[in-house]
Amino acid sequence: MADFVNLLKLCVGAEKVEDLIDWQQSQRGRWPDGLPRHVTRMWPKRETEIISGGSLYWVFKGMILARQRIDGLEEVVGADGITRCAILLDPEVIRTEGAPRRPFQGWRYLSAEEAPRDLPKGRVREEALPPALAQALAEIGLR
């Protein structure tokens, strides 16, 4: 059993992993250290488990395809005066096996046991199975 938990988030506005990478590159000047962040309304209650080795897994068009290690959580106040949670991310985007996920709002916790495996280094994609087949395999414990 892992001592950490991951977060799962829809990558809204992105159709592929390259879109996320490009967007994060374009936002580098927004933060003093130039490192990527994802700002969200809610602060995770399981903060200690998340920063103990968790990653943010990104869902693109119904499939988990990538993750980024979470380096910390930081309070940020928006121009509207509302306090939010910035999820501090490692700049390396790690591609994962495709795993189907239905749409949801916000973020969800994802246990290490449920998380898809990383693709081998240098392999930028894996041909995704049709979503119905991938879901059926996941339901019987095969990925």
Radius of gyration: 15 Å
Largest sheet: 7 strands, mixed
Instruction: Report the uncertain regions.
Output: none
Which term fits the overall shape? globular
Main attributes?
35% strand; 143 residues; 7 strands; seven-stranded mixed sheet
Question: How would you describe what is shown here?
Answer:
With 143 residues, the chain is an alpha+beta fold. The protein is 16% helix and 35% strand. Strands 1, 2, 3, 4, 5, 6 and 7 form a seven-stranded mixed β-sheet that branches. Strand 3 and strand 4 form a beta hairpin.
Topology (SSEs and partners):
Blueprint: E1 5-10, H1 17-26, E2 37-40, H2 47-50, E3 55-60, E4 63-77, E5 83-89, E6 94-100, E7 107-111, H3 131-139
Parallel strand pairs: 1-3
Antiparallel strand pairs: 1-7, 2-5, 3-4, 4-5, 4-6
Question: What can be said about this structure in brief?
Answer:
The chain has 143 residues and is an alpha+beta fold. The protein has helices at residues 17-26, 47-50, 131-139; strands at 5-10, 37-40, 55-60, 63-77, 83-89, 94-100, 107-111. It is built from 3 helices and 7 strands.
